[in-house]
Amino acid sequence: MTVAVAVVQLAPVLGDLAGNRRRLLAAVDEAAAAGARVVVLPELATTGYCFTDAAQARALAEPVDGPTVRALTDLAARHDLVVVVGLALLDPEGRLRNSAVLVDGDGPAAVYDKVHLWGREPDVFTAGDAPPPVVATRHGRVGLMVCYDLEFPEWVRRAALDGAELVCVPVNWPDPGRPDGERPVETLTAQVAAATNRVYVAVADRVGDERGTRWIGGSVIAGPDGYPLVVSRLDGSSQTLLADCDLASARDKALSRHNDRFADRRPHLYSS
Amino acid sequence: MTVAVAVVQLAPVLGDLAGNRRRLLAAVDEAAAAGARVVVLPELATTGYCFTDAAQARALAEPVDGPTVRALTDLAARHDLVVVVGLALLDPEGRLRNSAVLVDGDGPAAVYDKVHLWGREPDVFTAGDAPPPVVATRHGRVGLMVCYDLEFPEWVRRAALDGAELVCVPVNWPDPGRPDGERPVETLTAQVAAATNRVYVAVADRVGDERGTRWIGGSVIAGPDGYPLVVSRLDGSSQTLLADCDLASARDKALSRHNDRFADRRPHLYSS
């Protein structure tokens, strides 16, 4: 049995909360109409990324029971969806977090606060210190992390060992350029994370131009063999990628009769 | 200051010890003439891979002070080389090992026994249980591992944390096929290992056809940004790839003023 997974790549506008939310909800609605039951949205999808300072971020942040999650809950209930969205969240103690929230028809089922912060994010956000949650949803076991977290193989391994069949990753990948003809190494990192752990990895990147920063727009859904089921056109455009994923197959870590991604590990020889 | 690193991709013939050794030495000689100072050869480079049984492997194996390492030592002394070769080794206790040996002009400087065994290798070889050695050579700090080891990110991380600037990996990558237009995920794994740790990774694969098994011939030298400095033509041919590598640059793990591949790790949150 397969489930259709969608990653939504779009261009949030810094500070345009209402417009960003409207475009997000429309994209989720369209993905649901196309058959998606799991939808992944980018990091900081309602606010944009390049805050001038912490005060601007704070003014744009919302709590987990705020309007974005409420609206996504309604959509999820209507279409039987699991939605993963990246948000600037105000946590219960009033700290700002760069979070991924998993929403289903009953509301937010898990909140993950980005653990590995990028660039100037520490000026704005408090880093999380909890492992990636793995949620047993109606459509499969879903793990969450955010952007730079994915570049730490220890972190993906942890989610996979904890049972994730699909790792959903809202990202904002700034574009450092790359050699001609090469797929972005950020996208390859998602592919290899999938292969190394025999999981599905779904990355929703953003596009656009914000205070001089451009993003790769390198969204991808990689299968447990590490090859993309679908990968973005690298043309800077908003686009939704959709792939049928047999998530239960990711429970089987065997490569053959002889080898197994997990059983072949020798953890007593590894140090963290 | 850069050093020229070569990976030699060729087609050992199962059981033809003398011929394989002669072809290896000729290829090392040619690489040295082309300027290489570090030369990486494939896994099980003198014996071939597809042994009928342990007895055949044992008959072909040699000790670390055997003729292959002696001949490579002579070449290394003559051309100021560091050579990494994959061999079926008879260890001092008489066990067979799937090893990588680092040879310089003084002889073998390190022996590594493959820790993560592939396929039917456990019928033939005893798995190692020591971490990848990292050797301070005249040309830079070189880490060693063999083939399937590279698919465990914990293992590459360990070599990198132990100071490897260049990870040399003799491999025999069997070819499982891949989608049209895709670079083999095995090669991507080497690229992402390099990027994740900001090290150079040099993989020498084999080609040819042996008792029905074919190999990818996916040799690559990846730089600390994860992009190939040079990558094999995927045409099944013997070929030597050469790249100038600024190995000392791999000591610097910074991505920018704000981020660093090692300093950004949160090891107390990782479990092995």
TrEMBL record, chains A, B:
Keywords (A to Z) from UniProt: Hydrolase
InterPro entries referenced in this protein's UniProt entry, alphabetically: Aliph_Amidase/BUP, C-N_Hydrolase, C-N_Hydrolase_sf, UPF0012_CS
Highest taxon in the source lineage: Bacteria
SUPFAM superfamilies (UniProt xref): Carbon-nitrogen hydrolase
Annotated signal peptide: none
GO biological process, one term: putrescine biosynthetic process from arginine
Pfam families: CN_hydrolase
Residue stretches making up the CN hydrolase domain: 3-247
A Gene Ontology molecular function term of the record: N-carbamoylputrescine amidase activity
Family in the record: Belongs to the carbon-nitrogen hydrolase superfamily. NIT1/NIT2 family.
Protein name as it appears in the record: Carbon-nitrogen hydrolase
